[in-house]
Amino acid sequence: MSASREKQNRQAAAGQTDPKTAREARQRKEEKRTNLLYGVIAAAVLVAVIASFVWRSDFIPKMTTAATIDGEKYTVSEVNYYYQTSYRNFLSQYSYFASYLGLNTNATLRSQAISDTAAAMLGIELPEVSDEDAEAAAADPDRDPLMPLGMTWHDYFLDDALENMAAIQAALKAADAEGFQYPAGVQAQYDDNMASLKSVASASGVSVSQYLKANFGAGLTEKVYGEQLMRVLRYGAYADAHQDSVTYSESELEEAYKADPNTYDHVSYEVVSFSGAAESTTDADGNTVEPTEEESAAALEAAKAAANTVLDGYKAGGDLEELADENEGTYNQNEKGSYSAGSVMSEWLYNTARKPGDAEIVAEGTIQYMVVFHDRFRDEEPTIDIRHILVSLGTGSIAEGEEGYEDEQAQLKADAHAKAEELLAQWTSGEATEDSFAALAMKESADGSKYDGGLHTEVYQGQMVAEFNDWCFDTSRQPGDTAVVDTQYGAHVMYFSGVNPLNRWQTQVAANLRNEEFTAWESGLIENTPVQRNESGLKQIG
After folding, report:
1. Average of pLDDT values for 361-390?
2. Contacting residues for 462 by C-beta, under 8 A, at least 6 apart
3. Tell me, what's the pLDDT at 51?
4. Sign of CA dihedral 187, 192, 196, 202
5. Smallest Cα–Cα separation from 376: which of 214, 505, 521?
6. pLDDT at position 36
7. Measured between alpha carbons, how far is 393 from 398 in angstroms, rounded to an integer?
């Protein structure tokens, strides 16, 4: 599960973030979570399901206990909700290299063993299969001989599901004991998800029951789905509240920074690169001819010579970009580079002995880099907190490139802007407070942050799309400022909450510290919550 403190990251928040901008802290948090998301139905497609996921009878999954967690029994259908959610979220996160991991989505998960390569990438410790285990398996008359020994992908997703269930069970029990009050966004998100479920099922030409059966297996009724969805959403709210309660002093942040400065520091530098790899050729028949050893050696020496020529010219006072052009090198300037472990050039740039003006040739494989170091620094720029309401663009009927497309898009943008102005006027005519803005955002915004009142915290310079960013970081901006800002995603009703107490490097350090704390907190929930597996029930999972 995610350690992210910002609830909007759990939604499909395509609203205002520039896709070219990396949300570094949030990505780090998300990468360290397990695969439980929030049961959100994808509004675009009906998920394709392998045949093994569909049961013929609803009776067994509805009645049979598959696991008992801290004394509470869960049926096959309830466990399967988390199992299928884990599987789908994994595919969503790793779909672009699932095949490299050895996961075949067209075969049963029980039949696929996790490879050593996949285990290493996912941080899984594979259990050893002893000779005794192999002999016992071979002697078992009920065992399918095609089923692999050791951990399968089915085992992986089942373990993940049960761990997620244990964490949720323990957290909700603690929340009840504390008298925790769940925020209004929980119910709002639940209502939207259930409405989305019905909408997608209808668009697919099936009932909700049929849709759930196709995607989660027989026995998962709308009632069961809704109950588990609400548990997951409440867990998310409680986990967020726990994270929000964790704060750090300036001295604690400074201490954590000093323990790992490379992670947070940036460097500014210039570099000219030369490829030392000889190019392949093509023979008369069109076949590729790889370069000979002599040709490869000559290409490498030529790259080294060109790099040295540029280095000498730079030390003699020459312009680096001009020298790159003259010697057919590739010039780049980076004003805010980040550390990359294992990179020879990065290690050179981040060497504590480095001084402004240092210039040297650094080789990585066959590439020769002539690097000039300018500065090393941490990002002291402020971060801000804002709320917004997104009015997304309507869907046009004219395809791009066809006559009338530009006019239609202009009208869609104008309509979105007009709606945003109406919402701003509605807010202004009421209490016109930040709380009333948050309530309006929860009701009207098309952005995933709506469930937290449109709030985005610790926003840094360059994180959002240009128009959004420029309004937020205008030097005249004051708490309580409002406006309508148009971007490629629609019209945004803006509310400036204020400058965050933490600057950029501090937010990065705090995010990592919170993530470590969250991981330990969640691990403690799992470790201290007894899980009893009912193997006869678990055989029905997947």
Report:
1. 97
2. 21, 469
3. 30
4. positive
5. 505
6. 39
7. 14
